[in-house]
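protein under study:
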Amino acid sequence: MIISTKIDLDQYPPSLIVPLSAGEHLPKALGRIADETGVPLSALQQEFKAELSDIHTLYVGESRMHLLGLGKQAGFPEALKAFRSFAHQYAKQLHTQIGVSLTHYHGELPAAQTTEAAVNGLLLGTYQIGRFKTKDLPELHPLRSAGARLELIVPAAAKDDCQIAAERGSAIAMTQMRIMDLVNAPSNKKLPAVLAEWAQQSGEQYGYSVQVMDKAEIEATGLHALLAVNRGSEAPPFFIIMEYKPKEAAGDLPKVGLAGKGVTFDTGGLSIKPSTNMHYMKSDMGGAAAVLGTMEAAAKLQLPVHLIGIVPTTDNSVDAAAIKPSDVIDSYSGKTIEVIDTDAEGRLILADGLAYMTKHFQPDTLIDLATLTGSSVRTLGYHAAALFSNDDALAEQLYQASERTGERVWRLPTWEVYGDELKSDVADIRNLGIRPMSGAITAAKFLEFFTADHPHWAHLDIAGVAFGDSEYTSQKSASGYGVRLLIDYLQHNT
């Protein structure tokens, strides 16, 4: 798809989207549209109130003009959602030549941000989940067709900024859809080797380095916790290490380390999960997907940051060789772990990832992401990830990024009293708290134990937001959570 910006609408394209805000400027904007189209103003005022995601279609000659409401005080998340929903709902009415005119928009969101939200949302609205269907395939969305063109008519003073924003919105959306494909894929199509291959191909295409350890190298390196989780699996584990620096790096850059849980399917191991909804455990590598996607997007955008991504990946299966509750296992850090519940496996592989990161890369900032606990879902539902941090400034930066992007986080405490629940009589630490409450917090405390007391660490439990219900699929599906949040954080704080 070709994306371009221009300052004049010399003729109507076959499909034209006109975003409008529901404020004091709406009557004047509708008046201008009435004059341009010949549609009676009274009819426009009666049919269209510009509430968020409100849509009204006008026919102007052979063109369709779609008025798209962005509400009274829409921010970036709301605008993105409105454009995405529109692209999904109106796919059959859209042409391959689409225009978006900001000439009538007077909302609080600057033109460049509106442009980015429009492009990102429209492209995400083209996403189709049926990769493995052989018949009854959905029609290709017009914006994904050969020769598709998206023109944005923007204010002259903001044209250059809008072009950059449009390219950024497109770059991020394409990566978001790639990681959504990963998360939505069934486990037999998403073995740990597939994640490793994805990283290697992405690194080759976008110019960042990728090292992949196979099982023999993992054993030689001493990533014992990852090996322990993998014992019940027929598919070998992999340990993915990615490193990005901009091509024109000058001087010392902020160094940020990202670690993501890559459990490609979680049966719970011998502490087996109930069968109800177990098929959704294909999404248990949502943290890994966020890290993979952020590495790719940062390289695409050439962000001025030194970024390291680590993904330990395996599935958690049931076998005679699988670890058992009460086992004591080793870890890369040298600390021993008493396994109380084999379904608390994600924190085990992340323990090795975090310890490896701090030992070999010494990042200035350390962030991990994982679909870790049902406790975080019971606490925050499906609207926010649970945020834990030992650094108030880092927590605030991530919170502000979440407000700007709509990928929300909410901070929970990491008081030392919660760590007391992980004390073990037979090992250095237990992998599960002694009480059936505050599970998300004790999981965070477990991970903190393997950060080598890093002073700027944050953990995001994304179990409730990486995969869920939406208007875009009939079953739960990937949200793409994490990429835009982390890219925004990096853009504003590095």
User: Anything to note?
Assistant: The chain has a mean pLDDT of 96.
